[in-house]
Amino acid sequence: MNASAKSGGDVALSLAGVDKIYAPTAERPVHAVKALDLDVRKGEIVALLGSSGCGKTSTLRMIAGFEAVTRGSITLAGRRIEHLAPARRGVAMAFEGYSLYPPLTVRDNIAFALKGAKINARDADKAVREVAALVEIEPILDRYPSSISGGQQQRASLARALVRPADLYLLDEPMGQLEPRLRALLRGRLKQLLGERGMTSIFVTHDQTEANALADRVAVMEGGVLQQLANQTELKERPANLFVATFIGEPPMNVFDAKVEVGERVRFAVENGPRLDFSANEFSESARREIAKRARVVIGVRPHDLRLNSGSNEARVVSNQWLGDQSHLALDVAGKLMVAVAFSEMGASRRDNLRYDVPAAKLHVFDADDGKAVSHGAAAA
Amino acid sequence: MEHSSRAERVLRGVLITAILVFFLFPILWIFLMSFQTNEEVLRIPPSLFFKPTLINYASLITGKLQTAAGSLDLAFMLNLWNSVLLSTLSVALSLLLGVPAAYAFARFKFRGSEDIAFTLLSFRFAPPLLVLLPLSLYFQDIGLNDTYVGLIWVYQLIALPLILWIVRGYFEDISPDIEYAYRIAGHSWLQTFLRIAVPLARPGIAAAGLLAFIFCWNNFVFALILASADKQPVTVGALAFVTASGIQYGQIAAAIVLSITPTLALALYAQRYLVEGLSLGAVKG
């Protein structure tokens, strides 16, 4: 099992081979989480990022103890917790929706989380006021949940989770209902608080901006499978597979099916589209060897990595939008749209032909069958 | 509502009064009858003016029915006590069994859960008489015939499905996250059920309990067949007013007034919780 959890003292939470199957005896069981291995270091903030139904919330609920684990183990602070009741796991959780107890004021809702923590009344009150100030709900502390907005309820739920000492903080879409300005403000404060107090936390989000802004590492999930757990730079520069490559990044990575030949030169040919011709020494030996094993691959390049007005490939401009600080261009390439981002205003207008080039250092190559990364730039994946 | 014109307000008042008079008149008439002697009740044409008398209540409470043919013994107060006992204990037992069951059906999807819930509801589909005749034979065999225990058991057919299905809906309306938040703050499943789920569903429990109580109280046929005189509730006991010397309308009216009093009192008491449920608000997700 997890040798890392035993030896490495810095691992706070460890999931090993965790499966979640809903209605296993039914005709169509739902395999929500598949063989999930996940280590979270002490004091680390990890984001579970994915679209709805990807298994991220199921994972959070299994850690909290609201869903039974079908297979596998969960270790928190050196204790196996997958069979413990939620109350005995030492975790705190903030909820996305309506989770405040209606007969209590916001203040009492936050304070009841402290009841079990054996703190005297004055310290408890101070802790409640501090955390309320952090999430900007001081003025509504004495209101009842039914009389405050969804965003305020969400912040109160967040405050209730943060006020309590715990080995792990689970935040389920903690800022989903907030307006953008407040969200940006709270992100900063939350990051500071979690960092200062070394609070190990996992939060679920479908918003990659939020994941990038708040997390130390991001776990990208899809179809119940952990696709990649890495920091933001690595996710962008070394995506583990086609899913991560196209999911992370805004606008998403451009990908094309291509034939490949490796010899003196490395040539990629997109059907009815561009040919990319690189000198062999632009790729490492291992990258060349990996690419050469395949006749067909998927190549990808991020929109802002395209070099415009250079090289020999040409494409027709479909649209050109200046956003005030960057241009988004859509180019017609091999019957598909290829998006390019430039950080200066581009003069090209619709139907103009524009030259572009893909630098070898920015080219991502994926296996055509399983989508696994083959090489990123010069290096093998 | 604030924008209605004067004419609309007047019309609304008139209509509400008309409806209230229509529905409440029989009750008012019974109330008046209870203070009249049988002769006054039966005179033609009927009149709203009479000399009120307490003789009907007196004969019910003393258990001596004075008729033209002489004095008859009445077990009305015993019947009333039986009604209170049977209805209260039946509803209490139903709440004890039904509320946790409703919670289980609302929160946990286990194999066959829907089938079990529907089976419990289907108890209410069966015509009571069809069930009762074989049941009375079994009850005689196992010694439950003419016992409070046997009656309370059979009354579960009335009360349990009602409580189960009404309360289940209320539990389903409570966001599970409220309970999760409480559990993760260091409380057990049982504490969460007792301190969070049950108080939040209290308006539903009160409504279901009240309805179940009324249905139990008004039940006639179960007790008619399964109980003898000393275990009979008021509904069956009222048959005694049909005597050899005629129907005792005055006493019947008084008996009705006395027998709706407990339910009325309970309804007024439970109303507090029903209204509290409405003002609680925003429990729904």
Summarize the structure.
By secondary structure, chain A is α+β, with helices and mostly antiparallel strands.
SSE inventory with pairings:
The complex is a heterodimer of chains A (381) and B (285).
Chain A: H1 3-7, E1 11-22, E2 30-41, E3 45-49, H2 56-64, E4 71-76, E5 79-80, E6 91-94, H3 106-112, H4 121-134, H5 150-162, E7 168-172, H6 180-196, E8 201-205, H7 208-214, E9 217-222, E10 225-230, H8 232-237, H9 242-247, E11 254-262, E12 265-269, E13 275-279, H10 285-292, E14 296-301, E15 307-322, E16 327-333, E17 336-342, E18 353-357, E19 364-367, E20 373-376, E21 379-380
Parallel strand pairs in A: 3-8, 3-9, 6-7, 7-8
Antiparallel strand pairs in A: 1-2, 1-4, 4-5, 9-10, 11-12, 11-14, 12-13, 14-19, 15-16, 15-18, 16-17, 19-20, 20-21
Helix pairs in contact in A: 3-5, 4-5
Chain B: H1 6-33, H2 38-42, H3 55-62, E1 64-67, E2 70-73, H4 76-107, H5 113-122, H6 128-142, H7 148-173, H8 176-184, H9 189-200, H10 202-218, H11 221-226, H12 234-237, E3 242-243, E4 246-247, H13 249-280
Antiparallel strand pairs in B: 1-2, 3-4
Helix pairs in contact in B: 1-13, 3-13, 4-7, 4-10, 5-7, 7-10, 8-9, 10-13
